[in-house]
Amino acid sequence: MSFNTFGHLFRFTSFGESHGAAIGCVVDGCPPRIPVTIEDIQRELDRRRPGQSRFTTQRQEPDAVRIMSGVFTDEKTGEQVTTGTPIMLMIENVDQRSKDYSEIKDKYRPGHAGYTYDVKYGIHDYRGGGRASARETAARVAAGAIARKIVPGLTVRGALVQMGPHKVDRSRWDWNEVGQNPFFCPDAKQAKFFEEYLDSVRKAGSSCGAVIEIVAEGVPAGLGAPVYAKLDGDLASALMGINAVKGVEIGDGFATAAMSGVENADEMRMGNDGKPVFLSNHAGGILGGISTGQAIVARFVVKPTSSILTPRKTVDRYGRDTDIVTKGRHDPCVGIRAVPIGEAMMACVLADHYLMHRGQVGEGAAWPFKP
Ligand SMILES: Cc1cc2nc3c(=O)[nH]c(=O)nc-3n(C[C@H](O)[C@H](O)[C@H](O)COP(=O)(O)O)c2cc1C
User: Fold this and answer.
1) Ligand 1, CB cutoff 6 Å, lining residues
2) Does residue 217 have a pLDDT over 80?
3) CB 267 within 8 A of CB 161
4) pTM, entire model
């Protein structure tokens, strides 16, 4: 299986599968002398870690990361910094239960990747979905923790804004609330409702989808390379590449279809600091594939978990009709843990584009120009 590498200048190659010995990644192209501690990486992994509430899978993985290479002590500051060489991050799998899958080992879970992997590679790693498992996304979160440090002043935050058909009330949006409930939900009232809702979904032997919003602030204007490495194009690809993601939108996205040109145009005025101020951000911080300096806003939709207790019709590896019930430990709404994963992919795309921008144009143009 080729194509396990993300990025151009900031790149990482992820390795491992759900029930193998370990998962992780090798980050290549990270600039030297970037301060990185193991706590920086572990903190992000802990946000994605399974088994933290009754609303996510009960698989108990500590996701303890080890930095195997690529860091050293800065002689001036005494801090641990990157050396510019490959950084290998490794996380051992400690709570695999392959027997949970033995009953369904020859059957394909409808909505999962078993059939397509098998028809392509002729290998069916039924143990937790093998390489198609979202265990792989721990590697992305670990790489993302390093990526977050590359663009000076960058902040990347994410929130769950819809679960099933139920949206948050944006007038109650509070970023501080996101870390206070098990859903990464910015609306405290709706988070309470999500508890009841998700319990009812699970009791019904089913699962539900979600919409996640990722916001990056402190992104300098000018990142993005027309025409085949547009920032929005690369972001869409990175977010779409997360397991179970079925759609991505930037800024007002699909809602712009119903807007008029008058409403949609982000008007501009000069600010006191010599930089333009946009009077709105329908574009989500990207114009012509290049960042405007406004917040970059992306949303993605995560489908309902395919592994459910309700019997479903399927076929097996030998071409026979059969039914399947997926037991074992599964997230009833995989969108919840997708929040830190989306943040990580946003950070990786921005780090990659920041380095490409610096490589091609250095500091960039001295805007505004003299008339
Ligand atoms: C954080 C996260 C956790 C996931 N956990 C499960 C799970 O427990 N059971 C399951 O069937 N799918 C789970 N998925 C989704 C599958 O990995 C995904 O649907 C499968 O690989 C097929 O790929 P596709 O949905 O992108 O086409 C999870 C996805 C994410 C993002």
Assistant:
1) 57, 112-113, 129, 132-134, 137, 242-244, 303, 305-307, 330-331, 334, 337-338, 341
2) yes
3) no
4) 0.97
